[in-house]
Amino acid sequence: MEFLSSRLIVRPRDRERSLAFYRDVLGLAVYREFPGGTVFFAGNGHLEVSGRGHGPPAPDVAIWLQVRDLDAAVAQLRERGAAIDREPRLEPWGLRESWLADPDGIKVVLVEIPAEHPMRRDSRRPGG
């Protein structure tokens, strides 16, 4: 089996409110629009906001977005009116994270990978 692309699909309870969050607050660029839906660029993937949700989000689901500078990203989000649920901090696994939620309560995890973290090493070379 070969997977050619991927996308996370969000079914919001209020589509316009969620579009404003992802477009205006998070600042995701629009990849494409179609009747009833909008697809955003989200780093190496896409996030689609379409259809209509009917219940609360699954508590164990989160959208993970990597940023270059977590402190600057959080400051910018605050300027845009976002409520930060968890302040930036270094996690035991070595990543800096901050959390917020979309209008329906879907967790959004902003992540900065420190320069010394193994995810930053080139594993193709010894000592990477």
How are the SSEs placed, and which strands pair?
Layout: E1 7-10, H1 15-25, E2 30-34, E3 37-42, E4 45-50, E5 62-66, H2 70-79, E6 84-90, E7 96-101, E8 107-112
Parallel strand pairs: 1-4, 5-8
Antiparallel strand pairs: 2-3, 3-4, 6-7, 7-8
Q: How many structural domains are formed by the residues? A: 1
Approximate shape: globular
Helix amount? 10-25%
What is the fold-level CATH name, i.e. the topology? 2,3-Dihydroxybiphenyl 1,2-Dioxygenase, domain 1
Strand content: 35-45%
Q: How does the helix and strand content classify structurally?
A: alpha/beta
How would you sum up the major sheet? 4 strands, mixed
Instruction: Quote the distance from N terminus to C terminus.
Output: 30 Å
Q: Which key terms come to mind for this protein?
A:
128 residues; alpha/beta; 2,3-Dihydroxybiphenyl 1,2-Dioxygenase, domain 1; four-stranded mixed sheet; 8 strands; globular
